# Entry
Amino acid sequence: MIKQLTECYARGQDWLARWLGPTVLLIMRIWVAIAFWRAGVVKIEDPSGTQFLFNTTYQVPLLSPDLAAVIGTWVELVTPWLIGFGVLGRLTALFLFIYNGIAVISYPALWPHGLLTGLLNTSDFADHKIWGLMLLAVVAWGPGKWSVDEGVRYWRSARADAARSGSR
# Structure
């Protein structure tokens, strides 16, 4: 009886690792991609409003407000495609994680209780915290089986196997 339960548990664990894990990573990548894409679309649809916000409200460190507005807009229009499709998944997720952190730091209205207190307060910049955790999961485990990265890895492995078998 214990052996059957152990085997059943092991099969369930294998199934979860094979199917649920990659599916959850895909959902997280798409969730974050949609959030950043929408922000980019809002910025590009109203460039003068975007410039105004970057010059008056946002406090992006190290960049001029006008340059930050342009870079921010394009980051939010390009990287969602990369993370969504899982292209350079870990690197893109790390980049967006840092970008997300800069966005939080640059917009003090997100942390009414203070930045450090806001980290523990569930209502302060909650969306950014969720996106950050999703991005960290992709950094930690990669973009998963349902990604361009995995397709490339599979293709390269198949080519290497074919080359090895052809040289024998």
Summary: The chain has seven helices and no strands. The chain has a mean pLDDT of 92. Residues 1 and 94 are 46 Å apart (CA to CA).
